[in-house]
Amino acid sequence: MAEAAHRYDETMPLEYRTEESRLNILGFWIFLGAEVALFATLFATYLVLFQRTGSGPTAKDLFEVKDVLIETLLLLTSSFTCGLAIFEMRRNRLSGLLTWLLVTLLLGAGFITFEIREFIHYVHEGATMQTSAFLSSFFVLVGTHGAHVSLGIGWMILIIIQLLQRGFTPRTARKVFIVSLYWHFLDVVWIFIFTLVYLTGMVI
Amino acid sequence: MGANNHHESFPWKHVVGFVLSLVLTFAALWVALSSGLTAKAIIGVIVIFAIIQASLQLFMFMHMTESDSGKIQTINMAYAFFIAIVVVAGSVWTMSFVL
């Protein structure tokens, strides 16, 4: 075995055992940094425009505590179960890993279902993307996050299929770890949507 | 498997992170809806809660500081959040003179 690879063998979890995997994970962190910048521009747009409601409904008219709280709890819990999946992976338990990934997927699907229902509800109340600057920026920000969650669900399904086919290898372990980073990151973005969009919208 | 010998058998870090996240979520909700503070104070408090909760995710769930790249990963995310604050706070501040 090569020297560099040997350095990671003894002390590190499976996903860090090769230099290549460690660099893949570092690269994904840099991608997440770019995602932070992307969402920052959408937050900036929303926060500048959110009181420009024109003749449409305001944030206070539209947002409902119960629906937002259900979405928040679903996504937060899915982030927790995704963490448990990695915990099980590091204990070499494939069945535990698969179980928690499936729970994470179901919670993520639940989140998306509630979000789509919320959007449909708004449209039925006459609050569409074309109604006002507030709603354009709202649907773009929250919709971009929802698109990320949907992508994450598809990605995670593919990773589960690979795990079933190939089991634990340094490569599959690294892929699972990276999809977990992506999933936790979606919750990080949602924390700020919950705070700066929904809670702030209900206060002002 | 060296890594597994000294691995805990119960995910304490995750459970503590999850419970703290729940507490911060409901605390933010209470501050926003029933604390009776001024709008400015409410936003200040709930943004601090959000930053704490995001940090919990990064450190307790995402293991940001682990591996040989831990330092670069942390500096990268700190820089990303610096950019985010400049973009968001800068835009809001600038446009407050216009709107």
TrEMBL record, chain A:
InterPro entries assigned to the protein according to its UniProt record, in alphabetical order: Cyt_c/ubiquinol_Oxase_su3, Cyt_c_oxidase-like_su3, Cyt_c_oxidase_su3-like_sf, Cyt_c_oxidase_su3_a-hlx, QoxC, Ubiquinol_oxase_su3_dom
NCBIfam families: QoxC
GO terms, molecular function: cytochrome-c oxidase activity; oxidoreductase activity
Keywords for the protein's UniProt record, in alphabetical order: Cell membrane, Membrane, Oxidoreductase, Transmembrane, Transmembrane helix
Membrane-spanning residues: 26-48, 68-87, 94-114, 134-164, 176-199
Listed PROSITE patterns: COX3
Protein name as it appears in the record: Quinol oxidase subunit 3
Alphabetical list of PANTHER family matching this protein: CYTOCHROME BO(3) UBIQUINOL OXIDASE SUBUNIT 3, CYTOCHROME C OXIDASE SUBUNIT III
Catalyses which reaction(s): 2 a quinol + O2 = 2 a quinone + 2 H2O
Gene name of the record: qoxC
Main location: membrane
One Gene Ontology term from the biological process aspect of the record: aerobic electron transport chain
Enzyme class (EC, first level): oxidoreductase
Membrane topology: Multi-pass membrane protein
Localization of this protein: Cell membrane
Documented EC number(s): 1.10.3.-
One Pfam family linked to the record: COX3
Top-rank lineage group of the source organism: Bacteria
Purpose: Catalyzes quinol oxidation with the concomitant reduction of oxygen to water.
Family (UniProt): Belongs to the cytochrome c oxidase subunit 3 family.
Residue ranges occupied by any Heme-copper oxidase subunit III family profile domain in the UniProt entry: 1-202
Organism: Parageobacillus caldoxylosilyticus NBRC 107762
CC annotations in GO: plasma membrane
Automatic annotation (TrEMBL), chain B:
Transmembrane segments: 12-33, 39-62, 74-93
This protein's encoding gene: qoxD
Similarity comment text for this entry: Belongs to the cytochrome c oxidase bacterial subunit 4 family.
Top-rank taxon, per record: Bacteria
Localisation: Cell membrane
InterPro entries according to UniProt: Cyt_c_oxidase_su4_prok (IPR005171), Cytochrome_c_oxidase_bac_sub4 (IPR050968), QoxD (IPR014250)
Enzyme type, top EC level: oxidoreductase
UniProt keyword Membrane, yes or no: yes
This protein's GO CC annotations: cytochrome o ubiquinol oxidase complex; plasma membrane
Reaction catalysed by this enzyme: 2 a quinol + O2 = 2 a quinone + 2 H2O
Keyword Transport attributed: no
Protein name as catalogued: Quinol oxidase subunit 4
EC number: 1.10.3.-
Any one GO molecular function term: oxidoreductase activity, acting on diphenols and related substances as donors, oxygen as acceptor
Entry membrane topology: Multi-pass membrane protein
Function: Catalyzes quinol oxidation with the concomitant reduction of oxygen to water.
Protein keywords: Cell membrane, Membrane, Oxidoreductase, Transmembrane, Transmembrane helix
Annotated GO biological process: aerobic electron transport chain; ATP synthesis coupled electron transport; electron transport coupled proton transport
